[in-house]
Amino acid sequence: MSEPRPIRVFHRQRIVEIADAPATLSVLEWLRQEQRLVGTKEGCAEGDCGACTVVIGELGEDGRLKLETVNACIRFLPTLDGRALFTVEDVAPGGVLHPVQQALVAHHGSQCGFCTPGFVMSLWAAYERHQAAGTRPTRQELADELAGNLCRCTGYRPILDAGLAMFDAPPLRLDTAPVVAALQQMRAAPPLHTASGFHAPRTVDELAALHEARPDARLLGGGTDIGLWVTKQLRLLPELIWTGDVPELRRVERREDTLVIGAAASLEDAWAALAAEHPQLAELWRRFASPPVRHAGTMGGNVANGSPIGDSAPVLLALDARLVLRRGERVRELALADFYVDYLKNRLEPGEFVQAIVVPHAAPGTVVRGWKISKRHDSDISAVCAAFALRLDGDTVQQVRLAYGGMAATVKRAAAAEAALQGRRWDETALRAAQAALDADYTPLSDLRASAAYRMQVAKNLLERLWLETRPDAPLPAAALDVWQREVQV
Is the alpha carbon torsion for 73, 79, 81, 86 positive or negative? Predict the structure, then answer.
C-alpha cells in the first residue's frame, strides 16, 4: 500500500490538493463550506431532488473526456481524486451567460431559483455531449436527461423550452485541452490512500488483497446508498475501500456466450448493455432512479446491497445471471438465485466481494420483459418490479423465469408460478393457474409505498400483461398496454 497523500482534483481551472479531508466528506459540503462556492444547493441530501447536481469529468479508456452529472450531496470527496469537478460557477467564462443560462432567462425557466443551478448543470452536460456528437435532443430526450431535477415552481415546460432553445445560440464549448492535460498528469500519482481511512486500489488483485486483510472495511461503489447512511442516519463508517478506480471492474464486455458486467460498472453503462440485448428493458432502464444516480451508482453495488426493492436483481434473476465472487486469490461463481439469504443478508464471506455479474445470452426466441410500478413515474422507488423471461415451443411454454422485487424480504423467483406454466400450453387457463400460484410464492408486506393486497394484485396483473403481449393467439402490442405516455406534454 502506498503512503497517504492528498486528494487531487481539477477544479476552477487548476489542480487542487486537499489534505486531511474526512473519508465521508461530501462534495457538497466541501464546495459550500470549504470553497465558499454556494451556487450548488442542498435540497434533500439524499440524491433525489437534483439541486446539488454537479458534473464530473474523467478520461475514458479511449483517452477522451467524459462528462457526467452526479449528486454532490451523497458523493464523497475522495472519490473525485484524479477527476475534474464542474459546478454552476464554471459554465459562464468571463461573466458572459452560457447558452444554457441565457435560454433559461429568455424562456422564464427559473422562478424561486433554488433548483436552477442543478438544472443548469444537467442541461450543460447534455449541451456538451450533443454538441460533441453534432446532434440535437428531442423534447422527450431532454425530459429524460432532467429526470433527476425537481422543480416546484415552473411546471417544467419553460425549462424544456429553454433546453431546446439553447442549441439555437452560437456554440460555446468547454475547452477540454487543459482538462485532459490535468487528468493525464494526475494519473501519474500513486493510488489514493488517506489518513482518514479511504483506500482506492487500481487493480482487482490489489482490491482483493486489501479487503482480505481488512474484512471489516466497507466496500464503496457509487455511494448512492451508503451516502444516505451518512447524511440521513449520521452513521460513522469504518475504513472505505472504493471500487471506482479499478478499470477492470468498470468494464462491460460482450463475450461469445455471456455479457460480463464488472461490479463497479455504472448503472447507466450496465443498463445500456442489457437494453442493447433486450430492447424491451429500455423503459425500465430510463425509470431506474435518475441520470445522476445511474452515473454514480453501480449494478454490482445494487445487487450486493440486496434491497428487496432494488430494480436490477429482478431483471438479472429473469436472465439467469451468476455472480463472480472474489476473496483474496480465490474466485468462485454463484447463481444470483442462491445469493440472498434473508432481508439485506447474502452469502458473501468476510473479505469477499462481488467481482462481476455474468449474464448468459438468451436463447433464440426468448421474450424478456421488465416493468416497474411506483407512485411517481421518474426517480421513484418501486412498489413492485417484475421481470420475466419466456420461451415458447409453438404454443407451449418451454422455459420460463418469473422474478419479482418488492414482494418479499428478498428479490426472488416465483417458483410455484413457474411450475404452473412449465410445459403447459400458453393460454388463459395456464395464466390463471400461475396467477393463483403467486399466492404460494409471496406474502408481501404493507408499507408506505403499497399495501400487501395491492402488491399481490399488481404482481398478478403484470403476469397477465406478459400473457397479453406474448400469447400465441392475437398478442397485443406493448403500446396498447402502456399507461405512460412517452411523449412529453408539458
Answer: negative
**Amino acid letter for position 211:** H
How high is the pLDDT of residue 113? 94
Tally of CB atoms within 10 A around 19: 10
The x, y and z cell numbers of residue 460, run together, are 398478478
Neighbours of 231 (CB within 10 A): 19
Strand 353-360, strand 258-262: pairing: antiparallel
Beta bridge partners of 18: 7
Please state, as a whole number, how many other Cβ atoms lie within 10 Å of the Cβ of residue 131. 17
Return the closest-CA partner of residue 358 out of 322, 329, 394: 322
Give the span between the Cα atoms of 111 and 153, in whole angstroms.
6
Tens of pLDDT, residue by residue over 229-274, are 999 999 999 999 999 999 999 999 999 999 999 999 999 999 999 9
| Ranges under pLDDT 70 in the chain | 1, 483-490
* CB-CB neighbours of 108 under 10 Å: 13
Burial 278-316 (b: 16+ CB within 10 A, else e): beebebbbbbbbbbbbbbbbbbbbbbbbbbbbbbbbbbb
Q: Which residue has 427559473 as its cell numbers?
A: 110
Using a cut of 0.85, tell me whether the model's pTM lies above it: yes
pLDDT at site 39: 96
Q: Calculate what percentage of the chain has a pLDDT beyond 70.
A: 98
Three-state SS letters, the chain: CCCCCCEEEEECCEEEEECCCCCCCEHHHHHHHHCCCCCCCCCCCCCCCCCCEEEEEEECCCCCEEEEEEEHHHCEHHHHCCEEEECHHHCCHHHCCCHHHHHHHHCCCCCCCCCHHHHHHHHHHHHHHHHHHCCCCCHHHHHHHCCCCCCCCCCCHHHHHHHHHCCCCCCCCCCCHHHHHHHHHHHCCCCEECCCCEEECCCHHHHHHHHHHCCCCEEECCCCCHHHHHHCCCCCCCCEEECCCCHHHHCEEECCCEEEEECCCEHHHHHHHHHHHCHHHHHHHHHCCCHHHHHHCEHHHHHHHCCCCCCHHHHHHHCCCEEEEEECCEEEEEEHHHCEEECCEECCCCCCEEEEEEEECCCCCCEEEEEEECCCCCCCCCCEEEEEEEEEECCEEEEEEEEEECCCCCCEECHHHHHHHCCCECCHHHHHHHHHHHHHHCCCCCCCCCCHHHHHHHHHHHHHHHHHHHCCCCCCCHHHHCCCCCCCCC
